[in-house]
Automatic annotation (TrEMBL):
Gene this chain is encoded by: ffh
UniProt xrefs under SUPFAM superfamilies: P-loop containing nucleoside triphosphate hydrolases, Signal peptide-binding domain
Catalysed reactions listed for this entry: GTP + H2O = GDP + phosphate + H(+)
Annotated binding of GTP, by residue: 107-114, 190-194, 250-253
Protein name listed in UniProt: Signal recognition particle protein
Amino acid sequence: MFDTLSEKFSNAFKYIQGKSKITEDNIEETLKEVRTALLEADVNFKVVKEFVAAVKEKALGEKVIKGVNPGEQFVKIMHDELARIMGDANEEINLERPGIVPILVVGLNGQGKTTFSGKLALHLKNKKKKDVLLVPADTFRPAAKAQLQTLAKQIDVDCFDSDLNLHPKEIAKLAIEEAKKRHKSVVIIDTAGRLHVDAELMDQLKEVKESINDLKPEVLMVADAMTGQAAVDVSKTFHEAIGVTGIVLSKMDSDAKGGAALSIRHVTGVPIRYVSMGEKMKDLELFHPDRLAKRILDMGDVLSLVEKAQDNINESDAESMMNNFKKGKFTVDDFLKQMDMISNLGSMGSILKMIPGMGGMLRQIGDLSPAENEMKRMKIIISSMTKAERQDYKIIKESRLKRIASGSGTTEAQVKDFLGKFKQMEQMMGGMAAMMNGGGFPGMPGFPGMGGKKGFRQDPNAVNPFAGMQGKDKKKGGKGPWGKGYF
């Protein structure tokens, strides 16, 4: 999401690029474009009005910092204001208080409450080392109980066997008693929803909350990011009726315009605590306003990328590959591990958006699916190779070529094409290994023009090890090992 907003912001900033200083005249057109972009993204009009006024006031009152051009300074002001309206910093649930922490998950039907309950249980189990009990309390949709039990089994978390003939408040009280017996520290209660807000639903949720009020329950409302201002209105209604302590935005990986994320905190006063970014149970992230502001402004999100890498990359595999790398050895197995690591981090597009400045490049490239399909084809070819062939691809002759093609459902020409691309990759890695052994950037392969011990320094005579990978033209394509002109 936010791709359209990011593009429109990027176009708006062109009005101020190249200016020697910030004045009311030269930012007027930029602010007009920013205002239009935010309104089209379905951001609450009061939020837009306050945001634009705050940016204008700070931009005109800011002294130009020496060495920083006005365009960069304006983007920094935009970043700070975007982060402010979304909440400044992440505010996760306080799980360190004594006793059981009950978490009521509320919201309308179809918002993703049950899926989020499972995701949150996995997050708390893995990240916070908490013993979690999942509780189905949706007495209107019996299938929700079966769904939650399936998710609990999938993530290896206990699920309370609720009697759906009881009132949800009774289910909640019995679940708390069971949690005490099992020494659980967190109880996640998946409540009922409706297709719309009604008095009956609110009364039921009030009763559930009141039944466990002595434990000071957290109330997390799940809102569909795709519904824009409707999500803001529903959040406000729920908060006024039962007292919401945090908001969760689901379907944030969709083509949602982003209005909900930019408006909810400012309109309701309730912090956004989590965002759901995909279908897998691990696809849950803490909501960091400053990081999201960076993504919107194409400033990247390196911190989140590093955290993803720490969570998803196998340390022993990475160490083994690095040892091979230092020896100047790069095998097909190493290449497969690299592709698996990339896949574990997410789609190519989601990864590249976390790298500063890559958003604009992605908009120029367009569809990345051909490059991702190429990676899938490579994996299938590799899976048809023997262990010896993966360690030394040079032993692959005609008979082996036929067997690999037959086993992978590809043609001999496609297998030859893969081997040719891998040879280029091997040569590139050899050049990077040589730079690294000669004192490249500490802790990672040397990049062109970067002397590790002296920090980043530009060397105009540096050899670019990525030269063979760059396509000549995104339409015509090049002959890099990743395919035609994508990388």
